[in-house]
Amino acid sequence: MIATITDPPSGTGRIRRTSSLPQHISPSAAKSYLGCSLKFYFERVACIRKNTPVALHLGKAVHAALQVFHIARWRGGDDSPDAIAAAYEKSFTDLEAEEGPVNFDDEGREKARLDGLRVVAAYLDSPEAMKEKPRAVEVLLKEHIPGLSVPLTGAMDLVEGNFTPVDFKSAATKPDPSNAAFDHEIQLVSYQLLMEIATGQVPPSLDLVFLVKTKTPQIIRVTSPPADLHRKRRVIALLETAVQGIAAHRYHPQPGMQCSWCQYKNECMAWLPAQTQPERRATG
Ligand code: SF4
Fold first, then answer.
1. Of 245, 243, 246, 204, which is closest to residue 225 (Cα–Cα)?
2. What is the pLDDT, as a whole number, of residue 9?
3. Domain assignment of residue 271, yes or no
4. Residue 40 Cα, ligand 1 centroid: separation in angstroms?
5. Ligand 1 centre and the CA of 276: distance in Å?
6. Which residues lie with the beta carbon below 6 Å from any ligand 1 atom?
7. What pLDDT sits at residue 224?
8. Is 119 domain-assigned?
9. Does 32 share its domain with 127?
């Protein structure tokens, strides 16, 4: 869906401003935009490639291994620890080839690889490892949500038999449960919104499972109650704020703690507003 706004002539020149709604919004895109709209621009609009951070690479490889395990549970395939470890190793290598270099230092690759193997093994050995047949794995949903100008999309890692959506997170340190649920509120409530429209079911809870890469890995489930009307309206408003900001090309630095690990500091220092408004130009 595309909306176009054309400003009237102004001053000595004519300025045309176009506003294009994104085709859809996902909770991760909204969280990224709201965290720092300029970083969102560099990553997702200008598509400036950077080396993959080690933690992200490791998280993706672990995620891929868990996906293989859950699909095996779902479809009756090989869910043995050896098969899942092999899936992890393959993903760890394939991602390097497919997504470009990872920010490993000299000994970092081997350490990261072993950290991931340990955390996957810890999950398989934990009470959190899926014992029953899941209802769905890696489910992609796209739904129109009242109050949101574009469809909402979401990819749930796992849906348990009782309709609980579960998202897996790799973490370096043990999460504080109340902060974890708050940090991931947009994602969790978005999943509930999608689930309710797609299935007519209210999930009994919204769950995160953290795979903590401490020396002895820990597997920690954080469970939140389903959202009430107020939480849903708040999250829809946050999603819509991101949609409207993207549509209006509102991208600017939002300095804060996130700058410490931002890979776009050089681009950020060079930024001036005109650089992030490609469709705004003087025509006369
Ligand atoms: S350095 Fe900070 S303000 Fe600049 S783009 Fe990165 S996160 Fe945003």
1. 204
2. 28
3. no
4. 9
5. 14
6. 36, 38-39, 253-255, 258-259, 262, 264-265, 268
7. 95
8. yes
9. no
